[in-house]
Amino acid sequence: MTGRTKGGTMMIGKVMGKMKDRTAGKMNGGTIGRLTACLLILALAGMVVAGCSGAQGATTTTAAAGAATTAGSAETTAAAAETTAAAATTTTKAATSGGDGYTLNTLGEYPLVTEGSPSISSLVPWSDADHAPEDNTGFHWLEEKTGVHINWQAVPPDGWTEKRNITIASGNLPDYIAATANFGNAAFTSTEILQYGSQGIFVDLKPLLAENSIHLKQILADHPEWDMLITTKDGKLYATPDFNVCYHCKFSLRAWINTDWLTRLNLEMPSTTEEFKQTLIAFKEQDANGNGDPNDEIPFSTSIDGWNTMINGFLMNPFVLTNGVDAVMVDTDKKQVYFSPVQDGYREGLRYLNDLYTNGLIAPESFTQNGDTLKQTNEAGDASKVGSTVGGTEASTLGFAVSQRFKEYSVLPPLEGPTGIRQSPEFLSGAGIGLGAITSAAKDPALIMRWLDFFYSEEGTIMGDLGEEGVYWRPCIPENGEIDFRGNPAKFFRIPQPPEITSYMYKWGQTLPSNRSKEYRESMSVSGNSLDWRAAPEGDLELNLFQAAEVYETYSAGEDKTLPSIAIDPEKISDYTLVKTSINDYVKESTARFVVGELSVDKDWESYVQMMDQLGLADYLAITQTAYDEFISR
Questions:
Q1: CA gap 268, 118 in Å, rounded
Q2: What's the pTM value of the predicted model, to 2 decimals?
């Protein structure tokens, strides 16, 4: 244990040394000026390559390259607006005749055309380099179903944001941009949607719905409360919405603990921050993993790149409510936004985390390692190494088929802090925005709207989410004892596939929109026909997460305390993004330094808060407040 910790300390020391060079511990006036300039320059550079926040739970919209796209030529913007206006005026006509050798069928009948072979061009982020969209059997099925051929322009995730922004700024647009939710930072933000829509680059879908939609129109009629979540402040629907009532996503700021270790050491599940500390001490000092070596246990470890694996997320909520992402929360009594990392509770949370670190309970690698390294550490050797971790899923073993160690872990309920706070932030779930947009280049928006409408049907949702019936799923058979998450007869049974069959080979997932309702998601059969998620050899991740969410719902702080997806005034987005990036980077950097003791919670806290003021926190919150006020007034 000593050797590992020493090596980790050397590694974190190098990283923190670089941080210290940029931000001196005392933070005098000259240093503040240099730091501010440095952070602003770094943030500006990051805008060129960074994606917009699209991860689950993201709140404020950051339009990473908003300045670049706004800087498009006046001629391009004017032409886009003219094209959009023309498309809007020809919608009714397009509902009966698409031109170019094809005629639209009666709404609701397939294929979408009675004759001809229309095609649509679409820019799309695509994660699988080995299997192109053109090779996806699901897309082959879709083309036969709709009669519409798609010319895919696939872009790898790492280059998506830059390629998308360059394409939009150039004016050389595809008919449709599929901004997938298959991975983070790909979907359009509220600010981008408002910006591109008001410039005439994105087409307003609302005028198209009456003549060209059945399923999307019905969803909006059934859920009028979702309208404000997917439209801009002027009531326009410039982007393709997605409907995904993900119960477990609502409570995804979770922690996990090795319950085999608890059993072996005769320990109860910790329920307070102090009990958690004592549990970690026991993990460190005793042979918790039972391999005969009392020095190879790592009490707590996390990574810097996973889903909600940040150290100032779950472990900060016993002291102050935070979503762990942008950390802007809502005081529902005052209807005011506030920034968690400058609250007194955050200071006390840092004090607690520093105490854990000082006692050798937090692995130093937590501030530098990626998820793969964490998993490899825990899978190496003859027994698991990590006692506890944080993440939307149990990050220390997820994705590994090397062993069954993932079954050793259970969700850790929210901890009660020293002042009696026991809470979990609740993220918004239901209607999402920004999964795509019809552009002003589209010759026939009505055809594209009908094509999109299919994805909101049950058939379209199932095909995108599960794949072809009889090959990748089948209806459940009650006589087989196939039950859903609540123990009721299930509806869908996923047919197991060999490991070489990846999802990008046969379905489109969240590349295109869907209507994954609560009823749909919870009607899947559970593995092993058992409500014990460990019953099947491969386990049942979805059931595990569902049951974890049930535990956390008891301690929900309420979704109204989470900032909704708001749109920032396009004229202010460039400065807003710059300040936001600088502030969030500074919080991340300073949090690490407070935890490892390079900054003192007692001596350096005021300087830390003053630096926030220097970086523009007041203006950042004022702009956020204005956008929030506009949102709740609709």
A1: 64
A2: 0.78
